[in-house]
Amino acid sequence: MDALQIVSSATQIVSSMIGAVGALEQASRNLDEAPGKIRSLEEFMLELENLVGRVKQRHAQKLHNPQLENQIHSLHSLIERLQPNVRKVKKIVSKSKVKNLASVVWGSMVGDPLSKSVFSIRQDLNHWLELQQLTEDIERAIDSKAKSVPLLFKISSDKGYPISKKSRYVKSLLEQEKSHKVVLIVGLSGIGKSCLARQVASDPPKRFIHGAIELSLGQWCSRTACDGSKSKYRKRLAKKISRFLVQIGCDKKILQETNGDLDDVCDLLQETLVGKSILVFLDDVWEQDIVDRFAKLYGNDCKYLVTSRNEAVYEITEAEKVEISKDDVREISKAILLHHTLLTEEELPDVGERLLERCGHHPLTIAVMGKALRKETRLEKWENAINNLSTYATCAPGPVSYVNEKEAENAVTVFGSFEFSLEAMPAHSKRLFIALAAVYLAEPVPEACLEALWYSLGQASVFSLVVCKLVEGSLLIKDDSYPMYYVHDMVSLYFDSKVDEAVNILLTQSSSESAASVAPWLFAFGKEKVKIAAEEKLMSFLSISQERLGVVTLEAIVNALMASKSVSDLEASSASFRSIIGPRIVELISIGSPYIRASAARCMVNIFSRADYRQYHQSLEDVCAIDKLANLLENCDNPVIQTDVSGVLAKLAEYGSQKTVNKVLLKIPMNKLAELLDPDAEEWHDSLFTTLMSLAKAGKSKAVERMFASGIDKKLIKLLESGSEVTQHHAMVALKSFYELGGTHASDCLRPGTLNLLPWQARLSLEKFTLLDRNVPMSPKPHKFEDIVRKMQEKDSRRVMEAMQELISFFEKANQPKVREMILLSPLIGKLVSLLQYGNPDGMRSESAFLLMKLSCFGGAPCIRKMLDYDTIQALIKMMHCNVEDLQDSAYTSVHEMLFGEGGPLLLNQILRTGQIEKLVHSLNSKSIKTKEVSLLCLQDLVEVGSKACIDKIFSLQVIEKIALDKNNSKIKDIIVNFVKGLDKCKNLSSAERRVLKQQIIRKVRASVRGHKQEAHIIAAVDGSVAEGSRMGSSKHRK
């Protein structure tokens, strides 16, 4: 049923009902005819209900937007109003004729109840017709609204691939309601399957209201690549689907509970896609069961666009099969050539058609040859290109593995075009390109990895030039959103025959020092076969007998880790490197030279987890490692080594025994740490703040006493006066911790005279903190408190407001155990939460939010726990989304203060557990500027105080993308910069994790703001903020 049919049907039914109501009015004086007229009315009612059911079923996937849901229920509401009156009319008519006669007599005196009910039905029907204006249909209004709702997921099309008849055909298949859920695109490698699919998915049919999303699988995710190992294949497929789940907003914490089990991951996939309407693009599928797993998912309106060159996948029966043949690409091959040569049709030499024929009209081959002939108009150059292509195709190596003979014949020609393109590039290009065969480039690899490989070959100076040429020649593909690179599957197939040669170039023929610098990169980003060779080299280089190589290797390990694409990749790589370094760390520090100790300390700071420090601290203490590291710190003036070594000593103290704590505090030169807290040495502050906090946790008042004796407190006060925003934040956190742990030793640093010298923001925060320790009057009398509690229970709003004012002084004394106990035993918290609800006076709601904030600040964790029993955080976030700005401000302020207070972690867990982050992210789509503002502020707070799981959740819900895609927001760069600052302030992240997350922000921003009129300014601001925040640790990652 299309839109016009729906409006026509709805209007016709309602008009018929109005006619039936008119007939029923006439029958009200002739009761014998009334039952038949009522039956007619009931039939029309049933028909209207069926129509509503069909419309709701058809558009169920569009109800993620509340306004759409309101529109689709317009007819449903009409039915709900009509049903009671129809039942009432039926009941009146069903009475006996004697009673009917009496009703007529009675009605002549007091009014006919039947006529009244019929009149009410007529009014409802006429009112509905007026609202609909007789010309709009329900689905058109919904579709119109749906168009204004931004797509959640987007795919970009490949440049230079024209729209063909085949792409239009594929799109028409996806638009059909009754077509198969799977559209399978098959054809030779490089013939344009993925380009065609992306072109379709970049502008998906309107039915896919959540947009389109891509999942690239590749040969890596196949049984062949796993050597037939079923468990290895299932593990890889689970990993791919898990990444896909994160893309579509699945909670990483829930995902971790699956432990990588494929069946559990697929169950989670089923749950996550329920109610979604997405065009899912499964690229380069090698196994039939992958498609089957997606196709059998139910409860969604998704379809699956699949590309494959594996004939086994062709056998999927429940799929619309679309094959791309040479005849299909013939119509677009010339346009592809013109795009890559940068020539017009008039400038193209006459032999252009011959070149297309020699390339077999194969898009990838044409692209490679076209880029090699870019802006070339000389006939002889084109003639040479055609002849050379034939020669290179004859000499080119055949593929190591291929699907069928036709694929092998095609591969030889494509490989020939690669050889031709390489010969046209600068010297050394081919050798450098072959070296890339050692890296697993089927998925994006950081630019730093490629640069490290070529640096080890002594070709760092030509890196930028050669990479640019390889990208121009289609031999390497650059991810536009961030400097990462990957290759087409045909290039990957070409590389399969070059792996041994690449390993030989990088690890065998090169010098030992070059091999040591590149082995960690190959261990992190290499192919499986290469990783084994790299691991053997790593173990060899970390031997004490080769100290110089050990230093180079340890430095390269840290650099490779810092290039991780995500926090999960960082954790996986850290675990792999720990398995190699962990068993050797005692030997490296106990026997090694100062240089290797410094490098080992740097690795420990970046790689070791809490469990590692606990595992090795005793062994390290047994070999006097603390003495050796402390001596290194004392005799070294290099701030990189100072921050790394002090960080290791602090962690050993934090996770070691009391004996270790005492030894570290005795040996660590606090004066060296104080020197590094200079305002001009900001690049070291991040590491130092972590070190100071670890020492304070371990040594408590004794550690604080030693720090203050070295002047660290004065340095922190100085940073509060003149440091950056992030530095001030960390200094304030440190001072608060020292105040809590240091007792009388901390009193002087926070005395009123000192506080008065600080900026007002810092002064306000510290005054509020130290207020808890001032002398306070005696606890209030219990009967006075009971009077206030009784007054709070009254119905008189004025009396309740008076009681709320009186409660302020009590709540400010909630740090006293007796007062806190009185409050917790009373019904006050439950009453205050109930006053937050809609329907209470605005002033009362605002005052209630203020009181809950006061209580959380002064009452601490016990009061927070009690509040959470009454769903306080849910009520406050709901109030943040009301339409009264003052209330929104009050609610946000309360949440903010609670998050940053003593009970913040408890509040954070509740927010994660109850799905409040999803609500905050969803509210970014609101039309209310204020709602978006307070939601963004709250999300920024969550980044600053949040756990790793919390931050992962926020990023997985595409908050950065939503901000960047908001074309009407003039403050995009400021908002994103604040998220970056939040990461810098977050104490729950390691330096490595913080750096990886900021890299993710840059990638997301670059991909999202492409084409924005302020694109350059936004990217520059974000890059600048990331660079400024990373100065605290960046210098230690330079080569």
From TrEMBL:
InterPro entries, per database record: Apaf_helical, ARM-like, ARM-type_fold, NB-ARC, P-loop_NTPase, WH-like_DNA-bd_sf
Pfam (any one): NB-ARC
Keywords: Repeat
Keyword tRNA-binding: no
Domain NB-ARC: 169-322
Molecular function terms from GO: ADP binding
Keyword Repeat: yes
Protein name, per record: NB-ARC domain-containing protein
Organism listed in the record: Amborella trichopoda
